[in-house]
Specification:
The protein has 203 residues and is mainly β. Helices cover 11% and strands 44% of the residues. The protein has a 14-stranded antiparallel beta sheet, covered by helices on one side.
Length: 203
């Protein structure tokens, strides 16, 4: 499976870390795409040009702090006008995503090294390597609001299914990996057993 350094999604890492990596990548892509659940299909498509590329809705500046059960901070997503930044519990930058005028998103590590790019627009995003020559992942919006994450060979990695409570994430064999639920102002990320692994009270 191709990998983008952050988040790690290699089959060689433990499943507990793997699904958190998948969820983190999916959440970041949903934020980058303007959170498709807030838009109708027509409204979302209006942000894309004919070639599937285009600028995305501006994200409000703010911070989404994800905590572990017990209250300890796991990581935070800092929203910027031109992208987002992922930081650890010590506020140390892990990865930064910036958007240029063409709508292309660039992933960088704390040393300013380019890790990869996200190109395209609703309904399809391509996650490419640092050279922009290899497609690592494809994130495609389906009719009805669901999403699919595929690798560069178009093999299905996971499905992100829109639900009344939020999102359900399944692997290619339809095994549940996680749920993203909203309840009473709290958004929680739960594993396949329904146990809360991460949560945030930020809007």
């Amino acid at each position: 499976m191709p990998t983008l350094n952050v988040p790690a999604m290699s089959d060689g890492i433990p499943i507990s870390s793997r699904w958190i990596g998948i969820v983190t990548l999916v959440l970041s892509l949903l934020l980058v795409s303007g959170c498709g659940e807030r838009q109708s299909g027509d409204e979302a498509d209006a942000h894309a040009t004919e070639g599937g590329t285009g600028s995305n809705p501006s994200m409000n500046s703010g911070k989404i702090k994800f905590k572990q059960p017990g209250g300890g901070t796991a990581f935070s997503i800092k929203l910027k006008d031109d992208g987002l930044k992922l930081v650890n519990d010590r506020e140390e930058e892990l990865v930064r995503v910036t958007r240029d005028e063409s709508g292309k998103h660039k992933f960088k590590d704390p040393t300013d090294k380019v890790l990869g790019y996200v190109t395209g627009g609703v309904p399809k995003y391509l996650i490419k390597d640092a050279t922009q020559e290899q497609v690592l992942f494809e994130f495609r919006r389906q009719d009805g609001g669901d999403w699919k994450l595929e690798d560069g060979a178009e093999a299905l990695l996971c499905k992100v299914l829109k639900r009344d409570y939020g999102w359900k994430i399944e692997d290619a064999s339809e095994n549940e990996l996680a749920k993203v639920k909203t309840d009473g102002g709290r958004l929680s990320i739960r594993d396949a057993k329904g146990e809360v692994r991460l949560y945030t009270d930020d809007a």
